[in-house]
Amino acid sequence: MKTLTSIGPLNTVARTPETHPLTWRLRDDAQPVWLDEYQRKDGYAAARKALKDMAEADIVHEVKESGLKGRGGAGFPTGVKWSLMPADESIKTRYLLCNADEMEPNTWKDRLLMEQLPHLLIEGMLISARALKAYRGYIFLRGEYVDAAANLNRAIEEAKAAGLLGKNILGSGFDFELFVHTGAGRYICGEETALINSLEGRRANPRAKPPFPAAVGVWGKPTCVNNVESLCNVPAIIGNGVKWYHSLAREGSGDHGTKLMGFSGKVKNPGIWELPFGITAQELFEDYAGGMRDGYQLKCWQPGGAGTGFLLPEHLSASMHSAGIGKVGTRMGTGLALAVDHTVNMVSLLRNMEEFFARESCGWCTPCRDGLPWSVKMLRALERGQGSAEDIETLLGLVNFLGPGRTFCAHAPGAVEPLGSAIKYFRAEFEAGVAPGSAPRGAAVQIAGA
């Protein structure tokens, strides 16, 4: 995987603490930043401030006022989630979980942070645990992220040796233990309650809510689950303040701070960049990704992972923030975009995607368990030119039937969103897969049963 660590148009803009809170510490040689170097670059200064000078409620208030939203794709306000944890001081056992199960196709931003800046995540979790009064934390890590696991474990040992984890951290009286837990490789573990079940050693099925994890989480105790990038924002917010954090995003974006964004596909300069919310997709595509490679034309693009809808080239004028992408009909998602070139057949691309989503369904609810394999069956037939005349309408029916609010969790709605948008914009490619003179499948069943 090629990972670009420069943050600027074609690698010309310098990263600074004032403008790039997540990435300014990155090394040019892409090697991990270990404890000594991290501390030379103001590492753990925010943690010292939080543990020695701030009350737990003050930390929660700062994060809430910052407007930080979850960076895993859902975009729920982090401070609001924190405030849902019980205020009852008698509840001594609480947990902080880091959702590092980054299995969204075309997304690798958290991997960059964990491999190259492991102490940034640890510091973010330490401050967050203090705010939540959580004495123990777990980083639930995608099992294939072998280098990230090794780097995080080394960084945890460094922090323990320096008195930054463990008992009475920095003389504050606060105790916090942190562990890396590698998952068994299920996409559904990105859903926070499925992650909790897996951490407990159970099957990774989502749980019914309520109760929410803040009330009944891992091992029945209050639990907060946050994404890697979300937690990595916390030190800068505590260290520099809310007003500064708000100033990072472009005016009118509606979201605050910066975001790791990227472009992959047949672009000239694929990679990841830390950018302000409100930058246009056109800037991201042309100034950072360099546009399409010679000989390729942009056919369509996804703004934030495989679970977001396809957009057309004219939609590149949209701003990269939740409301901006929402205006053109889909979601910001993880912020890592995919460029689809003119040589790609959309039926084949969607068949590939839906095979992944069908395989990763936990099987807990009927629409997802049966609907996604059904979509794969029809897409395979259309890909071979053996589709039925009714297949396209049936696929659109599944898009509706598996949509938001109709399944147990958000897995199926995310799976069918790209399918619905692909049919909307490229219906002719699906119609080309209908076999000449084919009878509707329903009619064939009626004839057989007559």
Explained architecture:
NDH-1 shuttles electrons from NADH, via FMN and iron-sulfur (Fe-S) centers, to quinones in the respiratory chain. The protein has helices at 35-40, 45-53, 56-66, 78-83, 109-116, 118-132, 146-161, 192-199, 228-240, 242-248, 281-288, 322-327, 346-360, 366-383, 391-401, 411-431, 441-449, and strands at 95-100, 136-141, 177-182, 223-227, 258-265, 271-276, 298-302, 336-341. The chain is α/β, with parallel strands linked by helices. The protein folds into three domains: 21-246, Rossmann fold, CATH 3.40.50.11540; 250-341, Ubiquitin-like (UB roll) (Roll), CATH 3.10.20.600; 346-431, NADH-ubiquinone oxidoreductase 51kDa subunit, iron-sulphur binding domain (de novo design (two linked rop proteins), Up-down Bundle). The strands form two sheets. The chain has a four-stranded parallel sheet, sandwiched between helices. Strands 6-5-8-7 form a four-stranded mixed sheet, covered by helices on one side. The chain starts with 34 loop residues before the first helix and ends with a helix. The model is unreliable at 1-12 and 443-450 (pLDDT under 50).
Write the layout of secondary structure elements.
Layout: H1 35-40, H2 45-53, H3 56-66, H4 78-83, E1 95-100, H5 109-116, H6 118-132, E2 136-141, H7 146-161, E3 177-182, H8 192-199, E4 223-227, H9 228-240, H10 242-248, E5 258-265, E6 271-276, H11 281-288, E7 298-302, H12 322-327, E8 336-341, H13 346-360, H14 366-383, H15 391-401, H16 411-431, H17 441-449
Parallel strand pairs: 1-2, 1-4, 2-3, 5-8
Antiparallel strand pairs: 5-6, 7-8
